[in-house]
Amino acid sequence: MAECNKKCSSCESAGACDLKLKKRLSSIKHKIMVLSGKGGVGKSSVSVNLAVSLAMNGMKVGLLDIDFHGPSVPTMLGLRKVTLNTDGGGVIPAEVHNLKVVSISLMLEKDQDNAIIWRGPMKAGVLKQLLENVNWGELDYLIMDFPPGTGDEALSACQLVSDADGGVIVTTPQEVSLSDCRRCISFCRQLGLPVLGVLENMSGFVCPNCGEVADIFGCGGGEDMAKSYNVPFLGRIPLDPELRASCDSGHPFIYHSQHKPAALAFAEAVNKLIAEIESN
Ligand code: ADP
User: pTM to 2 decimals?
Assistant: First the structure.
């Protein structure tokens, strides 16, 4: 995809590209952004399981991976070998588990392990092109998996998708993640993006041998923070080695292990999230 180097004021199609974006986004009822202050806390795992869970409930769902530098969605959904095609209607998303999926890594490189080395304006341009050109069709939900932190892509995405329902913020319970998570809440508030809820991931680990719960990264920090910032708390997802294995093997946990405590916690979080969206 080429970067647009023109200033909007000097472009012969000034304004028309925004119309294209608005038209494309108007066929999507709800747009949810999944953010985290820090990498490795489970943001992509949450995005994938949230999207699959909504699709399992009969919703029409799209998942857009905008973590350009560390795209995990294709691996987590077993799509690493897929290359996206285009037709007259735009980019055709990959489909898996009744879910439409787009990641830049499915469009650019044959070798998915090649690094993407782009400066901010390039990323903003590519993001805009993705939002304008992917042919999602009618969707109930578009889940956007953000890169960690509050940098260029996050800012561009919030500005481009100005009618988003809000953000889900993923954190682990320990202070090093919580402090970045507080910045995420501040980012959302400064941009006028509603915080739909905080999800505390990797919260406790049930030993498969003795059954004792070990709070490896602590417990309850996400809930306390949600309370102190007066934002909804969506729940705690425990550490589960099966969840890690399912992410690596491309088999969504919520689909294949529906009755495990972590999957039940996911399902409960999704219900709270839907209730929160519907109450707004
Ligand atoms: P992020 O998107 O925040 O960088 P990921 O979703 O890629 O984080 O998760 C990082 C790693 O942690 C992945 O290997 C994932 O499978 C694993 N993981 C995430 N949540 C859990 C959990 N609750 N239990 C076990 N492993 C998890």
Answer: 0.91
273 lines ligand 1 (CB under 6 A): no
Give the model confidence (pLDDT) of 170-212 as tens digits. Answer: 999 988 888 888 999 999 999 999 999 999 999 999 778 887 7
Q: Are strands 85-87 and 90-92 parallel, antiparallel or unpaired?
A: antiparallel
**Average pLDDT value over all residues in the chain:** 89
- For residue 61, CA distances in Å to 35, 84, 148, 159 come to 18, 17, 22, 22
DSSP element (H, E) containing 257: none
> Phi, psi at residue 183, to the nearest 5°?
-65, -35
Q: Quick one: fold of 15-279?
A: Rossmann fold (3.40.50)
Distance CA 138, CA 136 (A): 6
- Cα–ligand 1 centroid distance for 93 (angstroms): 24
**pLDDT tens string 17-47:** 688 899 999 999 999 999 998 899 999 999 9
Of 11-15, 62-66, 80-84, which gets the smallest average pLDDT?
A: 11-15
Q: Residue 236: how many CA atoms within 13 Å on its side-chain side? A: 18
Asked if residue 40 has its Cβ within 6 Å of ligand 1, the reply is yes
- Supply the pLDDT for residue 1: 40
Q: Where are the domains of the chain?
A: 15-279
- Determine contact, residues 116/68, Cβ cutoff 8 Å: yes
